[in-house]
Amino acid sequence: MIQPVALKEPPATVEESGALDYISASRLKMFSECRLKFYFRYVAGIVKPPVPALFVGTAVHAVLQQWNLRRWRGEPADVDTLRGFFADYWQSEAAQRGIDWQGEEDKFRDQAWRVLCHYLEQTPIPLDERPEAVEVKVERDFIAAGLPPLVGVIDLVRSGGRIVDFKTAARAPDAQMAEHLNEIQLCCYAVLYREATGHEEGGMEIHHLVKTKQPKLAVTTLAPMSNDQARRLMKMIVSYVRGVQGEDFVPCPGQHCAWCDYRTECRNWH
Amino acid sequence: MAVKLVANYAKRLGLPGYSSHQFTVSVETELVDMGDVQGEAARLYNLLQDAVDREIQQVGFVPEGEYGAANGKGAPSATATGNGGDDHWVCSDKQKELIVKLVNEHQLDRNEVDQLAHERFGVGVKQLNKLQASGFISELLENSNTGKRNGAPPRKAKVFYRGGGR
């Protein structure tokens, strides 16, 4: 059994942990899902080795990033070129991450490549459409509001300022649920995009690469962030910062506990 | 028949304010002993390197940040700045500092850097907005760190933000 990787001496305080050095969509989302899970991950610094499905998602992202970069640079972005990149990436990265494949690495690798091939065939993005930005790190200063900066990495900004986030999923999502579950992340990106360009985004898209036996692609198209969504996000950010500062870390039991990596730590918490 | 050995040594160093200077020294000498090409080459290399290192410490005139913006005298060319000599950068100060640092540390050619910005974004370096500057910095890092892009796995720096660890 693979043991969790933990810091030998967990930070004594939130400040020492760096949990409030910056705000990100992932941190916000995890805090809203379960405050205790957030504590284990970002304050106690307990990092779990990635599970195979997570690594599949990471590898798929890496190939899509390469595909977008190549289109942006005007370099060849055909399937054969990307297959080579995928093979190199898998070989070099999988070995370093201590993943417990349970003898099924080939199955997961095939699954990742199949879903990528399907995406490249079915993508709604015209091959000659030049991206506005690929995998860009952006930051929004909230000093005036007394809050840490918001940072993020946007997967892709399509022509016309359309923000795209790629996701892998085990099953095809319902469009409304996809919007609801990903609102924090996409609104963070909208805030960051507006700060970085001075313009409103042209819209937002979630491209779900569905890892079913016959791979599917589900594209959810969203309007630009509304004023209500922006206010909602700011309220969540303020609540998050207050919660972390006040060390308000309590468990939030729910369906998500079924796939939580921190169940053992959670059961031992009191 | 006389055999000549030609040697030249060049060094380019970065300077503040998105500039750099370069000095090259060349010599041509006649080889007396054909069996000592290696020794003679080593002697010339040391000689030229000493000469260049001694002189290149004199940095001479280094423009201030606002240089060229007011009177246009000696202003960088439109190609070099992308905005006809206006020293205002659209991106953040932090991004500007990082771009200047990368250019200086890696002794990148300013014209080539500006050309890259035009190729990728259709504007000069100083006109890049924050989003574009972020992508441009990644390009500079990749070009200067690895020297290759095709087929290489993404750099670790990006992984910091990826997945559940952001």
What's this model, at a glance?
The complex is a heterodimer of chains A (270) and B (166). Chain A is α+β, with helices and mostly antiparallel strands.
Explain what the structure shows.
By secondary structure, chain A is an alpha+beta fold. Chain A has a domain at 133-241: Lambda Exonuclease, Chain A. Chain A is 46% helix and 15% strand. Chain A has a 5-stranded mixed beta sheet, with helices on both faces. In chain A, helix 2 crosses helix 3 (35-43) and helix 4 (52-73) packs parallel to helix 6 (105-122). The longest helix of chain A is centred in the first third of the chain and has 22 residues, at 52-73. Chain A is globular. The model of chain A has no long low-confidence stretch (mean pLDDT 91). Chain B is an alpha+beta fold and 166 residues long. Among the domains of chain B are: 3-57, no CATH class; 93-146. In chain B, 42% of the residues lie in helices and 16% in strands. Chain B has helices spanning 37-56, 78-81, 93-105, 110-121, 130-145, 156-159; strands at residues 3-15, 19-31. Chain B has a two-stranded antiparallel ribbon with strand order 1-2. The longest helix of chain B is centred in the first third of the chain and has 20 residues, at 37-56. Chains A and B meet through helix 2, helix 4, helix 5, strand 1 and strand 2 of A and helix 5 of B.
